[in-house]
Amino acid sequence: MVMGAEMLAYAFVLEGKYASSFPTFGAERRGAPVAAFLRCDDKPIRETHQIYDPDCVMCLDPFIGRSQEIFKGLKGDGIAIINTPKQKLETWPDALKVLGLIDASALAIHEIGRAIVNTCMLGVIARVTGWVKLESVLSSLDMNFEGSLLKKNQDLVRRGYETVAISAKE
Description:
Elements: H1 2-14, E1 18-25, E2 34-41, E3 56-59, E4 78-83, E5 96-102, H2 104-112, H3 118-129, H4 134-140, H5 147-163, E6 165-168
Parallel strand pairs: 3-4, 4-5
Antiparallel strand pairs: 1-2, 5-6
């Protein structure tokens, strides 16, 4: 999650925008919940605190994605992106306007052999929000990958971008 937020911030910077990403960690143990926050803007960003009223939430963990708690604080025209094998939400939160659902875990296992979904979700956020270009996301991968692993993750970003199911509240 942290690495994904950093790559996404870099993708925004590649487009001439300002971006800031930072994580928060739960208990110091493997598998503990991690949250990462990202701000982007056309002007310099001075705020460094947690985001309490997000425009968009993205959940990488399919188990946490089942909880309505992830929508807490979401603005009234909010966007949510969830890694889940489900085709739809059981209940549609009032604050949610656009929803992107994708089984990123299955795609990651197919493309890279492990259920590491961060790069797949970067392609998804580019498609669902339109805030950043796919090409910028693909370029941001260079900061963490090279060789065959870079190619596999680029393919995973593209698959996420192409296969996400997008729904909108009418």
